[in-house]
Amino acid sequence: MNRRHFFQLAGMSAASGLLSSASFAQSVQSGAAKSTPTFQANPRMTPLRGYRGQDVACELVYVEGKLPSSLRGSFYRNGPGLFERGGQRYQHWFDGDGMVQAWRFTDQGVSHQARFVRTDKFVAEQEAGEFLVPAFGTAIKPKRPVRTSDSFNTANTSVIKMNERLYALWEGGSPHALDPHSLATEGIVSWTPELSGMPFSAHPKVEPDGTMWNFGTMMGKLVLCQFSPLGKLVQHRVMDAPSSAMVHDFVTSQRYLIFLFSPIHLDLKSVQAGTSMVQAMQWKPQDGTQLLVIDKSDFSKSYRMELPAMMLFHFGNAWDEGQHIRLDFVKSKDLGNFQVSMPQMMRGIDVTNDPSTPAFLEIDLAKKRVLMTERSEILEFPRVDPRVVGRRNRYVFYPFATQQSAYNALNGVMRLDRETGKVDRFDFGDRMRLEEHVVVPKAGSSKEGDAWMVGVGFDVQEQTSFASIFDAQNLAAGPVALARLPYWTPHCFHGNFYAA
Q1: How far is the C-alpha of 87 from the C-alpha of 69, rounded, in Å?
Q2: How many CB atoms lie within 10 A of CB 150?
Q3: Residue among 257, 275, 258 at smallest CA distance from 267
Q4: Which secondary-structure segment (H or E) carries 342?
Q5: Among 204, 122, 128, residue whose Cα is nearest residue 156
Q6: CA 470 remoteness from chain centre
Q7: Is residue 24 pLDDT above 50, yes or no?
């Protein structure tokens, strides 16, 4: 299916009543989020209106194209899904209550399910009909005790499966366990009393053998955790680290854990005076970005170096070459997107974000030197084949903003060949808004990149959400299948695919 074929199908489908469950879609949307004075109706921003706390499901999703017979399993996603209560609206996208979604690919077709994570906060506020605790980016006067970070834990950032158990991840507090089949919330999890209520990143790294690494940061401290392939905690440690008010992601190579600390200072006096954490953050470019490299075999061995000030959320991958480490990530200028653009987007206003672009580091540990190179594509959410996490990789996959994109919105997918610099890409046009896409190895294959690229997006014209499936070796040919929901869903941040 090439691009022309894709749009022919899309147009034919719309004309012939693609969404046979249209009445259901209208029901969901009218019950989910009516326009309010706190949100300016904007068809491009519909997913940011959010739901009102209801769960949704579709047993048989309409599929355009042909679903690969070898693609079977569950694609779990998580993101903020509720932004308003009692006439009050969150000012930041990161504040919304977590909603976990499951796209299930079976011999019978594709189904979809979405359920809010029943955190203590969600349950209490749902019953009260109003916000009761402060949010990360919205100053709210507490109406119930705030004892730990889990008092306002939204469980809204990612989802991971370990040893047949699903976990909804935040990054400021504990994971929430979920039933992977029903998505029912089972409660907060702590693997040891010392880690109870501690920050636990939403970006754990799982190596090819199943070993998982994760971290949390708070006030100049770094919490490191290693888990076995069976989900057992192997080791953990709290250590000193450079101070930054927000560290969202890290990366692992064969021998090292690597962090970049952007120069973000938190004005605690402002927080104590009632300012939200987001607005209390201060950009301090004179402090530079601090690089921390930690030996996985001995956490006491580490290296520190400094880079120019830059903002980053996501890494792609890293690998070792002797005393050199090579890694990639996505960078932006400063806190502008985070502090200025997102509050406008939450009001339904179109915003052209500062570009986020790919960057690459070569770290010489012996000489303590770092070389950074960059590319110019506007993109986010880098992912690699899960079989090469922490190992040398050739390909990085991203959703990106094509030349047709308005407001730098992500509307295409691309694969970068790091050896040749060549790019394979597909442009959906300005009609589609894309989220993260993940790499799913084809059954029976061991070759990097011989995989499906699976992700989700929002069709602005149809006002519905969809899952897209590409052959990762030929993105330019267009999606091999689109699974179209009869309703829209809130945007997610991150997720993972688990083969059946």
Answers
A1: 47
A2: 21
A3: 275
A4: helix 342-345
A5: 122
A6: 19
A7: no
In 3-state terms, what secondary structure has residue 151? helix
Report the 10 Å Cβ neighbour count for 299: 17
**Mean pLDDT to the nearest integer, 375-383:** 97
Structural contact between residues 465 and 483, judged by C-beta atoms closer than 8 angstroms: no
Q: In the Cβ-directed half-sphere of 278, how many Cα atoms lie within 13 Å?
A: 22
Lowest-confidence region among 7-11, 237-241, 256-260, 336-340? 7-11
From the CB of residue 221, how many other CB atoms can be counted at a distance below 10 Å? 14
In terms of Cβ atoms closer than 10 Å to its own Cβ (0-12, 13-18, 19+), residue 164 is exposed
- pLDDT tens per residue, range 276-308: 999 999 999 999 999 999 999 999 999 999 999
CA angle 414, 418, 419 (to 5 degrees): 130
Query: Do the beta carbons of residue 102 and residue 121 sit within 8 Å?
Result: no
Q: What share of the chain is helix, strand, coil (3-state, %, to 5)?
A: 15, 40, 45
- State whether residue 13 is helix, strand or coil: helix
- Of the candidates 417, 355, 456, which has an alpha carbon nearest to the alpha carbon of residue 105? 456
